[in-house]
């Protein structure tokens, strides 16, 4: 009984010690280290600003005719997608409205939709080229266009005068509309006309008919000096010559008759 009572007393003392605040404070687990402070994540890079070709062509130029055909054939979407490609870029040759006006009015009306699309694609290279790069680019002639490897151009750079030769036209670059990688837009003074589409004579507008001759330039026109017409002068000259001709003949007859009489005598 005494043993059991002693064990019970020891157990109770142990419980009392373990449950006391002092013991709990001594055996409390150490505090966790403060969390590491991470640097703020960097802000995302802004998306590259792409050139809107429709806006560019609508305010420059005038390039309204070319822009209308680009939109009609959906080639504008192809060019815009390439313009957004910062790796390769695009180089466009854009004719002015006056260049289209120099063609026959039926030039594009007689083309199929595929031909018209190829014609628009023919006015661009699938890579960005600055003006300074055309000198080296000319050594690679013929240069393939967006229309395909069979639709090529020959480029020449003669002391800064750059020409883009197709089969039926040889336009020159008039000015640089926009040239910042990856987009280059150059103004040309003629429409590029490939042989694959225009197999016969170039579709140039006929030359204007010569102006009708002015009535004052005819034979009856008055002379600036006298105000009389040439025909009137001719008539007057013939009238004045007639009397002189008559006098000369009469004199001759008189001399002949007198000579004959002298011989008879």
UniProtKB/TrEMBL annotation:
Q: Short name of one Pfam family for this protein?
A: Fasciclin
Disordered: region residues: 204-240
What positions does the domain FAS1 occupy?
50-192
Q: Which InterPro entries match?
A: FAS1_dom_sf, FAS1_domain, FLA_A
Name the Gene Ontology biological process terms: plant-type secondary cell wall biogenesis
* Organism of provenance: Triticum aestivum (Wheat)
Keyword Signal assigned: yes
The entry's protein name is FAS1 domain-containing protein
Q: Does the keyword ATP-binding apply?
A: no
* Family label: Belongs to the fasciclin-like AGP family.
Keywords from the named record: Cell membrane, Glycoprotein, GPI-anchor, Lipoprotein, Membrane, Signal
- Report the superkingdom from the record: Eukaryota
Pull one GO CC term from this UniProt entry. plasma membrane
Q: Signal sequence span per UniProt?
A: 1-24
- Return the Low complexity bias intervals: 212-240
Q: Where in the cell is it found?
A: Cell membrane
Q: How does it sit in the membrane?
A: Lipid-anchor; GPI-anchor
Q: Which PROSITE patterns match?
A: FAS1
Q: What does this protein do?
A: May be a cell surface adhesion protein.
């Amino acid at each position: 009984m005494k043993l059991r009572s002693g064990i019970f007393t020891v157990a109770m003392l142990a419980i009392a010690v373990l449950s006391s605040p002092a013991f709990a404070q001594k055996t409390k687990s150490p505090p966790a280290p403060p969390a590491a402070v991470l640097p703020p994540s960097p802000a995302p890079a802004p998306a590259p600003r792409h050139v809107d070709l429709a806006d560019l062509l609508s305010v420059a130029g005038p390039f309204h005719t070319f822009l209308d055909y680009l939109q009609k054939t959906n080639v504008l979407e192809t060019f815009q997608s390439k313009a957004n490609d910062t790796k390769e870029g695009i180089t466009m040759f854009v004719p002015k409205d006056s260049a289209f006006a120099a063609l026959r009015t039926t030039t594009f009306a007689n083309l199929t939709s595929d031909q018209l699309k190829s014609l628009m694609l023919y006015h661009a290279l699938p890579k960005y080229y600055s003006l300074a790069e055309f000198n080296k680019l000319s050594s690679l002639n013929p240069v393939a266009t967006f229309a395909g490897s069979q639709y090529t151009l020959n480029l020449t750079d003669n002391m800064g005068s750059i020409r883009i030769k197709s089969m039926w036209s040889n336009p020159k670059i008039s000015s640089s509309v926009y040239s910042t990688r990856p987009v280059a837009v150059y103004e040309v003074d003629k429409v590029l006309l490939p042989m694959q589409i225009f197999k016969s004579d170039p579709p140039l507008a006929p030359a204007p008919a010569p102006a009708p001759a002015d009535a004052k330039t005819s034979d009856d026109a008055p002379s600036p000096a006298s105000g009389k017409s040439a025909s009137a002068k001719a008539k007057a000259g013939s009238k004045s010559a007639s009397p002189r001709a008559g006098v000369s003949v009469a004199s001759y007859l008189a001399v002949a008759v007198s000579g004959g009489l002298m011989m008879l005598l």
